[in-house]
Every structure is written in C-alpha cells, then in structure tokens.
Amino acid sequence: MREPLQPRKDAETAQLDTSRKARPAPTFAGNAPTTAQGKWAEKMNNSPHVLRQRGLSDAIRNSPRTVSQRRKMDGLVGHGQDGHLPHEVWHALRQAQGPATPTRLPPAGAVGGTAVQRKPLVLPHPQPGNNEVWHVDTEHNSGKEYLKNWIDSASQSNLPALNSLIRQLGPIPVDEFELWLLLYARLAYGRARELIQVNDATYIPGDAEFSSRDDVPPATTLIMRAINTGDMYQVRGSMVLHPDFKLLIWNVTPQARAQANMAAAVIGAPNRVFYTDCPVPPPGYAKSETWTTSDIEANVSGDLLFTVAPTRDKPKGEGPKRDKTKKDKPKNEELKNANFAKLAGDDGALAELLNLLPGGAEAYQAQQEGDRLPWLQKTLGKIKNQEPALYTRAQEVYRRFCITDLANKYAPYSQAQAHAFEHDLQARGHFDQASGPCVIVNFRDTGHSARPGANAPALDTGLTGVQQIIDAIQTKLGAVQVVAMGEKPESLGGQPNLLKYWEWPSVQQSRLDQTLLLKYLKDNYPIIGAVGMRSGVMDQLALLGIPIVSIDISPHSGLADGELPDLATSKGWDRGLKLEDSYKQNYGHAFIKHARKDEKKRKLPNWEGAFHPEDIATIAGAVDFYLGSKADKAKSDNYRHQSHPLQPAQVREGLDHLIKVVRRPEGITAYALIDHLRPYVKQLKTLVTSSRAQQSESLGGLLSAFDEVIETMVNQKEAGQARGIKWMRDNQKQALLTDDRHGRWYREQSAWAATAFGMAPEQAAIAVQQYRALNEHYLVPPETERLLLLHALVEGIERVQAVMAYLGMTPQTSSTSH
C-alpha cells in the first residue's frame, strides 16, 4: 500500500527542473542481496524491462513540456508546492466518490474541452464591510486567475470569506480544477493564519458562533477592533475593575497583527484574551472599547452610598421567618459591597473621610466592629439629605481614592521588578540627577510615520512643536525638570529622560512591564504631571495617577465665515470628555485652533509641526492652570480650561458666526437659518445634558437665551411674507431642532401643503417627508415634482436648481428615484 502523499522537502524543491538527477532505482524488497529473496529483487530491479520503464519515466519528467507545466504550477501555488497536486490525486479522490455521475458536454468555447459538472460558487466580497456577493461560474477554467486573485485578497483581510470558499468546495473536489482551487485556498488560509497569530491569546475562527461559546460570554466579554490600540489602556482598566471579564480582539489581519499583539501584551493575561479574524463585531457583544471609558467613569464617579444588591441564596418566602418583634440592624455582610465600604480598607482615605463626618474617627471607633459600616451608611445618608455641600466633599474623597485604587491595581509591580526599574532609571534614564519636580513631555509621531497603524497625523507633536511645549512649561512653571518621553528630543538625553525607554533591559520583553515602569516612576519620583498631544499614552498616564494636560484640536479650528463648529466628536475626544468628567483637574485639556503646516500629510519623517503663537499661549496657559501653583488653578469644581469648547465663552464664539450668516448679501430664509443652526445646537444640548460639568448650568442658560435670539430672527424673517412660513411658528422651530417626525409640525405642515397645492392629505404628508429628505440629505424619492414646487416656494427657485444640478437632475427627470 502506498504511503500518503507528502509535501516535498526543501532540499528537493531547491533543485532546478532542468538539472534534476535521475531518481534512484525503485527497490522491490528491502532484504540484503545475500538472501534468495534479495538476490531475486536485485535481478528484477536491473532487468531490461524495469530499466526501460525507468528511463522513459525520467525522460517524461524532464521533457520541456513537463518542465514548463511544473513552472506554471510554481507560479500559481509557490515554488515546490506542485508536489501537492499530482494528476493521480484527483483520480484517487474521484474514485472514492463511487460511480461517476453522468456529465454534460462543455459549453461552447470551454477551455480544454473537458466535460465537467461544477456548481457555481457564492463568494462574499474579499474586503470586510462590503456586502456585495459574487456568483462565480466555474464551468470555465478561464476564471482561475480571477479566483486566485480573490483568494489572495481574502487571505489578507477576510479569512471567514476564504473559509466559506473552502467549505463550498467540500472535502472531495469534482475535478482537477476544483482540486487546485481547494488546495490553493487551503495553502493561502494556512499562511494567513500564521500571519495573524497573536501571542498570549486564543484564536477563534471568524465564522464561529461566538455567543454560544462558554469562553467568551457576551455579558462579560469586551470587544476591541485590532487597529484601535489607542483604546487598549482603557480596556485594561476595565478588565482590572472586572477580574471576570474577557477580551475579544476582532478583525485581526496581517496588517493589524502588530497592533493586536500590542493590545494583548498590555492586557498581560493570556487566559483572558482571545482574537478572531471576523471582520465585523460579533453580534450580541455590546461592551466595545468605547464602553470601557464609560465603565471607568462610572467607577470613579460612583455615589458613595451605592450598594450592589446581594444575591439571594434562597427563593423569596423560603427559610426561617424573621422575628418582627426584634428591631433589625443593617447586615454588615450586605454593606461590604457598598462604595463607602471600599474606603474602610484604606487607612488614609478612611481617616480623610472621617475628618469630615460628625463625631469623626472617635465616633467610628466607638462602634462595635460589626456596626461600623452601618454607622457610616447612616451618617453619610444623613449629611447627603441635610448638608449637600459636606456630602460633595465626602464624595470628592471617594473619587480621589478610586483614582489611586485603580492606578495601584492597574500596574502592580514586584520587588524584583522595582529593583530592575530603579537600575534602568538611574543608569539609562539619568534619574539619579533628578533634583526637583519633574514634568513628562510625551513625543508623538505615529501619524507622520510609515509604521503600521499610523493615524491622526495632526495630533503628532512635531520637532519644533515639542520644543515649543518645553519652553512653555519652563516659562510657566520655572525650575522644573522636563522629562522627554518617546523618541525626541534627543538633546534632553543627558538629564532625567524616558527616551526609547521601551528598549531598556527591564522592560524590553514586555509591553506590560513598560506600564509598570511608569507606575514605579510615579510612586518614587516627584512627577507632578505630563503634557502631550491627545493619545492613548496620555490616557495611560492619567490612569496611572499622573495629572496630564492633553493638547487637542478645537472644533472651532479653521472656521470660515458662516461656519459653525462641528461637535460630532471623534472617538478619542469623546473618550477624553468622559475621563475629564471623572478625573477632573487630573485630566486637563488644551484646545488649539490653528492648523499647522503639513499636519495631515502621512509618511513625512522629521515633521516640524510648529504651533501658531496663539496656540502656544493656549498651551502655556493650560500648563499653568493645571500644573501651576496659583490660587485660581484647576479644582474639582472648575476643571475646564478657557479654551475648552464647552466653556460659555467658546460657545458664544461659535454662535457669533450666526451673525455672519444672517448678514450675507444674498440673505437667508427662516428655514435655512434654523437648518444651518440645528446640528450645532443639538450637539451642544446633548453634550450639556450628558456632562457632569459645573458649567452645565451656565451653558443651559446661554442656550435658552440663544433660543430667544433665534425666535426673534425667525420672526424678522417671516415679517412681510405674503404667505407665512407656518412651520417656523410656535413649537414648530423646536420640532425642527429635535427632528420630531411624528409631532405637531408634520401634521400642520401636511394640512398646509394640502391646501396650497390641492393635495390629498396622504399625498401632502408624503410631500413633507420628501421635502425633509431633499433638504437634509439630497435623497430624492419618487413623487418629487410637487416636492420641488414646495421647495421652490419656500427657498426660491435658485436653491432648487442648485440642488437639481448637484444631483445631475433635470425637470424632466425629477421623478427619478435616487
């Protein structure tokens, strides 16, 4: 019986086809020639018939045609891999299927003229996020190059799609073409699996049923896209808060493998990290990387008196009945889950809290050990109801405790690690020269580099920019030592620094150890803060308990006359807003407004990135506000710098653009006025509603006053109109602002349209909805002629013609659906 087919050895594939040596003579028996059987075998091996067959076989193997075919196969599946695809393999597989089914003649023009009976393949798009599906007719071998390209593309970005092809082909192909296709797909899949391997993590195929797996239950599993490494520090924070949580990294591709490895290394818990090539978030998993920031915010900003309800061991009604004649005391065990109970385990935080409470430490110590938590609960509840200002101070003690507690759990280091860190900090970081307060300056150059995952080049620091930041720190803070962190500026290498600290022996083997080093630095050296462009690293420093000043780009940046700020926040900014509401003065923000030269170009090494003088002044002021020692520095009740977009002065600046809109020479209708302002006002109101900021109250008043200004302007616009713009009256303006599609506005407008154009009520309602669609999205559904007439009456025929020109429409084709 033949041995199973084996891949060729490297030594074999290294030989050139044109100079292959004749194969050794086949041996029919392995016995020594001294035995009778061995002598007979030797005679057979050297018989004229066997020698003639062997020579013919070698001649065929080394013929120009065979060599040419072998080279073509090398081009398709890789040099030396043709050993996987002998012609006889297909015969063996085909015979294993039993009697062959009848075949039909090939279509006219079929390549090769071989009668085959293949089913068409259904292939998803090889790029994730594209829902297009292709039905490929494989009757013609001319699709081989197309399918090869599809496999190559899918192996780079969509392994589940490649798996779908492999499953469709089945275990036994129909003919040699499908055999080639199956083996090529499997080879590509195998190579791709090697290219996406993530260290210290468990692989889950992208087409798995995730929600039914026990190892990644949706309720306790965080999900994170592989390329979103800026969120990995918050993900670690959430996993520290919830020791039972797992992490599933999705959309791991060869290009994103480095980022996925980085995230798994930061988590540093191999049994809790999983990864998949699934190109979209698995259904049923709601705890994304952005959720983790809200989780941290909820932990740090939680109410002192919040208590997790204990689980019941027995159903309600079972067990011994309570003696109602005895007065029950709060159960100490149940209160151990309360937020205030966390302080009881920290002597410093507990002492700070007791100093605020009536009776203080003396009253607390006077209680029996089992009655101390109930006493705390009762006392805190009393001051919460009767002395809210005092309770706010107690809440502030708890917030600071939570920040410190999370930092300690986030980066716990051993004594051996501390010893290694100290050695590197002195020998390589020159911290033996640290003689006073230190401020870290983080240098970011990810965006302008050619490294994998390069993003947001406008948030890079720049060679000139980093020196401007250093100058601003020294000007405002005086005698502080600036600690350069990252790759630049190298000129600060002779003083305390963290230049390329990831290469130091104590941390170069572990991304998590780099985090622990920073925590050790914070615990043992006078680090008073860190300054840098918005990044995940800056967030990490904040989570380690280091006060930061994060420099970000203001939504007011680069506004032309008539433009309003776009507050539809990016994920990074949204993340920062949540952290500043919980970390308050420890998470500072400075917002710059002027673009820097080449700030959006990529692959631009040694980018200068000089800041505008006004932005330098903003950065210097923010450094002084958050890290300085002035009486009016940032506090827990005033932690937003004057450059913050939610400061009332910044909101007024945004609304001032309204005047420039109203005074345009061409004028503006009342509807256009509201339509222009609505996105900004909605975003503002959303942020104000969700914000914990003290400025919320003043912003609310400002927005109310702004509503009155809008109403006045609208009335002025409507004055003298032959036909009043009815939907701009009373509460209809508010309906526009909230986009209420089922309220009074639509009912009234439908009635008006029916009267004005002789429409039936149903047609009028459709016309109103179509009007909104055209005006907001330039999507023109059927039945648009009356809609365009309505639009012309309200906005002017020039506006309608401009919209139609934008859409490539003419009046004759205006009813076409787009």
Please, could you describe this protein's structure?
The protein is of the alpha/beta class and 818 residues long. The protein is 48% helix and 7% strand. The protein is built from 31 helices and twelve strands. It has a six-stranded parallel sheet with strand order 9-8-7-10-11-12, sandwiched between helices. Helix 9 (232-241) packs parallel to helix 21 (536-543). The protein is globular and about 110 Å long. It starts with 9 loop residues before the first helix and ends in an 11-residue tail after the last helix. The relative contact order is 0.05. Mean pLDDT is 74; it is low at 1-34, 76-116, 311-320, 324-330, 721-741, 774-800 and 803-818.
